[in-house]
Write a structure and sequence with these properties.
Number of domains of chain B: 1
Largest sheet of chain B: 4 strands, parallel
CATH class of chain B: Alpha Beta
Radius of gyration of chain A: 16 Å
Shape of chain B: globular
Order of helices and strands of chain A: HHHHHHHHHHH
Oligomer: heterodimer
Distance between the termini of chain B: 36 Å
Structural class of chain A: mainly alpha
Strand content of chain B: 15-25%
CATH class of chain A: Mainly Alpha
Largest sheet of chain A: none
CATH topology of chain A: Serine Threonine Protein Phosphatase 5, Tetratricopeptide repeat
CATH topology of chain B: Rossmann fold
Strand order of the largest sheet of chain B: 2-1-3-4
Helix content of chain A: over 70%
CATH superfamily of chain A: DhaL domain
Distance between the termini of chain A: 29 Å
Helix content of chain B: 40-55%
């Protein structure tokens, strides 16, 4: 991956978080302390400001630096959670990973994030998006799927939607008990947004195979 | 001298809560324990800030270790993150206590002022938590 590609991905990632800050804050106001959008915006503005320098780094160093920025700048619980994810990913990945290597590194990053949040899937958190999307990636790799970005994006959106009927067990939303039911988890939404932006950027960069309509339906 | 006693760090989403809890600790133990607080996000709003937590741990550093008292989720997660980012050799002498922040800080400091080791300070604070 060259510097220009890395910069495109960083801009896609930061851009979607910044553009959706108000929506994320509104989701967090419903079931949390209402700071998710602003916190994430602050963190990703710091990342965006360094996009050129980050893009010059080897992939592992760039990911670790993104993670460190999020840890130091985001402030809420999402800072250490997303920060740990990117820092662990940077630690596990090499500079030019194959899809299979990337998938293994993502699995390790996800495990580190679970440990940081002392949480499991099913508790209405970002894990409820990241976990099924990783499973989709693993399945897609096994099948040799040509439409991976579209599948991952669709899986992420559906997974975020699936947090609506969940009852929060972790974080501030857990104080609400049953009243947390009926709202999408803000962290699940921000995860889905970032995955969608990355998938769109990757699909735009490498429109390798024509996407078969039937394959899209599987992911949707 | 305070060098031998466990240090206390208070981490709240609110600078006022953190500072107020620290005032209550000072009233109880005076200068007998190293004490510092961190409260608010990097912009001064409600939240917690890893860099500020690391600075507070440094400020309250004691060779006997540091007990960190936190309020809500993000304060705990960010404090655990801060501990991991501290230099090696210090990390294993910092504990984040599962205790109510104000009562926990006061009783932990009181225990620390008597020269108790870190694990006793922590246990004393955590006895306040409902199981």
């Amino acid at each position: 991956m060259d510097a220009e590609q890395k910069k495109t991905l960083i801009q896609a990632l930061a851009g979607t978080v910044i553009a959706h800050a108000e929506e994320l804050t509104a989701l967090d106001q419903a079931i949390g302390d209402g700071d998710h959008g602003l916190n994430m915006k602050r963190g990703f503005e710091a990342v965006l400001a360094e996009a050129d320098a980050l893009a010059q780094k080897p992939l592992p160093d760039a990911l670790k630096a993104v993670g460190t920025q999020l840890v130091m700048k985001v402030g809420g619980a999402s800072g250490p959670l997303y920060g740990t994810f990117f820092m662990a990913l940077g630690k596990e990945v090499n500079d030019a990973p194959t899809l299979a290597e990337l998938s293994r590194a993502l699995a390790a990053a996800l495990a580190a994030t679970r440990a940081r949040g002392k949480s499991e899937p099913g508790q209405k958190t970002l894990l409820d998006v990241l976990t099924p999307v990783l499973a989709e990636l693993e399945a897609g790799i096994a099948e040799g799927a040509a439409d991976l970005p579209a599948r991952l994006k669709a899986r992420a959106a559906a997974a975020a939607e699936a947090t609506v009927p969940m009852r929060a067990v972790r974080g501030r939303a857990s104080f609400l008990g049953d009243r947390s039911i009926g709202h999408m988890d803000p962290g699940a939404r921000s995860s889905a947004l970032m995955i969608a932006a990355l998938c769109d950027a990757l699909a735009a960069a490498a429109p390798a195979e024509p996407v078969r309509p039937a394959a899209v339906a599987v992911g949707a | 001298m305070t060098a031998g006693n466990v240090g206390i760090v208070i981490v709240s989403h609110s600078p006022k809560v953190a500072e107020g809890a620290a005032d209550m600790v000072r009233q109880m133990v005076g200068a007998a324990v190293p004490l510092a607080w961190a409260g608010g996000n990097a912009e001064g709003g409600l939240g917690t800030d890893v860099a500020a937590i690391m600075a507070a741990i440094d400020a309250a550093w004691s060779e006997a270790g540091v007990a960190v008292l936190v309020d809500l989720g993000g304060a705990e997660t960010n404090s655990e993150m801060a501990v991991e980012m501290m230099e090696e050799g210090r990390r294993d002498r910092i504990v984040v206590c599962n205790a109510p922040i104000v009562e926990g800080a006061v009783i932990a400091a009181t225990e620390a002022s008597g020269g108790s080791p870190l694990d006793v300070v922590r246990r004393t604070a955590e006895e306040l938590s409902p199981v």
